[in-house]
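Duplicate of #3305? Posting structure anyway:
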């Protein structure tokens, strides 16, 4: 647990969540910060009490490793994407499966909800991104243009844009209100493993080239190159105010960066295995990471 990240960033406790039987591929807080969702290679989704660490439920349904998961911004739903080529939409209150979305031809590596919780984006090994109507469960649009696996995706919280990151070394920024083919952001020298928008409007991308790049997504201009990881950057997350960025990688480090000047302000200890995912809680007071050793740390 990290206290007051916008002012001081000190470790005051580390809590472990140890019930998965496979690598933890994704972890995310519910919008009210009371629950934590984790997804694993054991084909299971777990929901935890974020404060006590109690395992609230184990969710079954996928028939392959669960590669991605997220809550809807309104907290009523969560979604998961799997190696079984399906996307599942679940009701948060009952964990009932609302939809099994079929449309991808290969493993689904990323899922994310739109800011109004009405749409869901998924993408993966088939090199396409699919936009779904969440309530109906139908395909609204298919985005094509990447030349390799799409491993990451994100919606902008306050503009009609979304981004996808691919193993073709590029990030694409798509305008949901336009029929254009998207803006391509090039510069990374390795696969793109993670993308995220900040509330102020920046876009971050992390790569196997060990760097993080901060972009102006509208102009495509590069703002910062964050260089300091010694291994692949696997996950990143902006704080609520957009002033901090946390990054996790295969170098067994979680780094926290100041987005005003691009400087690393903290290297978090307690990560003894490659960190596969990290995320800030919506209130900005907590940071959680998931690792190869099947543990989540908060």
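Output from current build:
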């Amino acid at each position: 647990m990290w206290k007051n990240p916008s002012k001081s960033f000190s470790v005051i406790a580390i809590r472990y969540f140890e019930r998965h039987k496979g690598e933890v591929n994704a972890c995310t807080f519910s919008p009210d910060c009371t629950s934590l969702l984790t997804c694993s290679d054991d084909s299971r989704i777990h929901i935890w009490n974020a404060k006590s660490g109690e395992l609230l439920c184990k969710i079954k349904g996928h028939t392959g490793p669960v590669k991605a998961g997220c809550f809807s911004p309104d907290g009523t739903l969560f979604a998961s994407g799997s190696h079984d080529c399906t996307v599942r939409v679940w009701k948060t209150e009952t964990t009932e499966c609302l939809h099994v979305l079929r449309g991808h031809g290969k493993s689904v590596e990323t899922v994310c909800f739109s800011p109004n919780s009405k749409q869901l984006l998924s993408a993966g090994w088939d090199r396409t991104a699919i936009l779904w109507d969440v309530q109906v469960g139908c395909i609204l649009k298919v985005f094509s243009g990447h030349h390799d696996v799409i491993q990451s995706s994100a919606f902008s919280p306050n503009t009609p844009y979304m981004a996808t990151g691919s193993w073709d070394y590029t990030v694409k920024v798509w305008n949901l209100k336009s029929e254009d083919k998207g803006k391509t952001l090039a510069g990374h020298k390795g696969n793109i493993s993670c993308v995220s928008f900040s509330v102020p409007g920046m876009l971050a991308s992390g790569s196997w080239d060990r760097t993080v790049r901060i972009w102006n997504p509208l102009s495509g201009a590069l703002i910062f190159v964050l260089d300091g990881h010694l291994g692949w950057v696997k996950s990143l997350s902006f704080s609520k105010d957009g002033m901090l960025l946390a990054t996790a990688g295969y170098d067994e480090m979680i780094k926290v960066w100041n987005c005003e000047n691009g400087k690393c302000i903290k290297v978090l200890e307690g990560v003894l295995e490659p960190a596969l995912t990290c995320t800030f809680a919506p209130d900005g007071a907590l940071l959680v990471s998931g690792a190869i050793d099947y543990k989540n740390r908060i």
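Confirmed duplicate; merging threads. The CA atoms of residues 2 and 292 lie 22 Å apart. DSSP finds no helices and 30 strands in the chain.
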